Amino acid sequence: MNAPTPAPTGPSPLRSGFTIVGLLTLATFGSLWVDHQVSLTSQAMLYVLVVVIGAYSLPLVPSVVCAVGAVVAFNFFFVPPRFTLIVESRENLIALSAMLLVALVISHLADRLRCETAFANRNEQRARQLQELATQLANTNTVEDILQLGQQTLDAAFDGPVWLALRQPDGGLAFAAKMDSGLHDDLNDGLQCCMRENAVLGPGTGRWPGLNAWYLPLGNKGQMQGAVCIQNIAAADTPGREHAQAVCAQLGQTLWRLRLTTAMQETEAESKRQQVQSTFLAAISHDLRTPLAAVVGAASSLQTQRDKLSPAEQDKLLASILREASYLSTVTENTLQLVQLTNTTQPLQRDWESMEEIVGSVLARLRARDPTRRIKSKVPEGLPLIRANPVLVAQLLANLLDNALKYSDDAIDLVVSADHATLQVSVKDRGNAIAPDQYQAIFEPYSRNDQSGQRGAGLGLALCRAIAQAHGGELGVRRRQGGGNCFTFSMPVDPQQPQGAPP
Amino acid sequence: MSLRVLVVEDDREIRSMMQSSLTVEGFEVQTAVTLSEAGALLRHAPPDVVVLDLGLPDGDGVALVQQIRLNQSLPIIIVSARHQEAQKIQLLDAGADDYLVKPFSVGELLARIRVALRHRGTALAAAVTTHSLDDLHVDLATRTVQRAGETLHLTPTEFNLLARLVRNAGRVVTHRQLLTDVWGPEFTEHTHYLRLYMGQLRAKIERDPAEPRHLLTETGVGYRLAVA
């Protein structure tokens, strides 16, 4: 991070006094030591020397004091009559006056030089700070980070305190740092005003010069992101204000860029979501329309042609109505559950459940559609309990078994197995094997592997996978040895099984 | 004298379907569209069975069930969609006797009504103390459970659990009701007790515990002892 700018205050007055006394004592003793060996002019040069040293190392006022003191001391100790402040000869008076003038000019020049050096240093430091800020902002992707960087940079550049605030959608301000409410109200007015006027307020700006703080906007008109208040500043510190403005302009730009990026990403996500939704709707309406057509066709045929139909034909139509209607009910149920599962952020309602029980209830429901008992279940004893939503897991198994019944004509195996960490349920059929390049697509909400010519529940597998994932598990498919497919649902087993009941 | 059924259902098609199929079976059918209408009918001409739809326009029916249970023991059968689990359980716990999931067949509706009426009929005479289905025989008075003539040995908790289901044979008993009656009211959240003990009970009673014939699971709601 940036090194803090050295404080503009010089050494304390006491230290300056000591320095002056020391320098003058040094010059006096030096001159006394060479007294009568060198001319008065050379002794004067010794005093001029300490004036130069004083001017170089002391601020303006002490160095002037030092210059005057040197002239007085030289006059007192060396200019005849010695040990008085009286000057006898006109020659010495001119020399003393010239010496005083030289001393003062040196002090002044040295001070200016020092000021300019400090100014150049500060400028260089600020330029470096701006550059570093730009580099760091380029790698920043959150509002919090930008505010933190801004706070650090401004804290380093000014005595402060510095307050950053972001404009909220409701027009209010959110401060980056905590503060008490009295200060909050004071700052709020200034910050709001500077955002409204899109201009810097405070000393030296011509707006609100009576303040002891600068108020700077973050961003430009129409894209105002917030504002900054820097307290305890000097009115004449124009370069400082310009630096603050440069920092704030960078912060404002970065905030604006971030806002634009976020808005763009949101729009993209929204358009993608709408696209998915419309594909989804198209798939659903296809899944609903086909069985509806069958129901309407069969029912209207019974209504208008009942007399001409044999009892066997009538039964066939009635059976078709029932079958199609129950299929409609399944599709509706699946759709509803899928939408609920994918649109909620609420955690699943779970309880301790037994997979044996869930399998039992699913089989009880499915046997009506499996009169020849093609489904063979294999459930071992002593399965661990699982934390699950039983209605959803039952629906997952029912969908898998339903599909197996629909797409194959042979026996279907339902196998449950478990170890200490995972519970697996596999549904194995002998139907047409699904091509490996379809393994992903069949789980998409709007795809259908329709090679068998049978109508599929377009959403069934998508819902199954969503249910598996909601339980922290997975649903996969692989080719079965000897032909057919094996769908496997696996979910984690909580290693902490519940305590048994009191007997 | 024919038995009277009150059907509370706001959908016209389902209402008229239930009315005609129940009339054909010899029931006298009254219909109500709202809970308040049902309340009024219950006061003036108490029926023998109530079939109550969930999600009526003027409320969720809990108040009606509680009101009926204050002074009447007539059977109440709830009709609900599959995803209305929580409401369904709430009404069962409030005293409703059984439930049906939409879409249901007329056969299912009639079976539920028959079971409910049988219980009410015997409830007035004597409580159910025996149960027989296929080769399973349970006698609560002598505390014996037999399968194919062979006596089964149940632990006291297993027996209490089975007894609770026998007393409500054919009707669903919610998790909460079972836990309260077998273990005590402080155990109503300990559903894993039920999973463990029902598992043990099935292992002793059922030929194939994975596909039970007697101890049926009503997923997410409770258990039911099969009567047919």
Can you characterise this structure?
The complex is a heterodimer of chains A (503) and B (228). With 503 residues, chain A is α+β, with helices and mostly antiparallel strands. In chain A, 56% of the residues lie in helices and 12% in strands. In chain A, α1 packs antiparallel against α2, α2 packs parallel to α4 and α10 runs antiparallel to α11. In chain A, a hairpin with a 3-residue loop joins β8 and β9. Chain A has 11 helices and 11 strands. The N terminus of chain A is likely disordered. Helix content of chain B is 43%, strand content 21%. In chain B, the strands form 3 sheets. In chain B, strands 2-1-3-4-5 form a 5-stranded parallel sheet, sandwiched between helices. Chain B has a 4-stranded antiparallel sheet with strand order 6-7-8-9, with helices on one face. Chain B has a 3-stranded antiparallel sheet with strand order 10-12-11. Chains A and B meet through α8, β5, α9 and α10 of A and α8 and β11 of B.
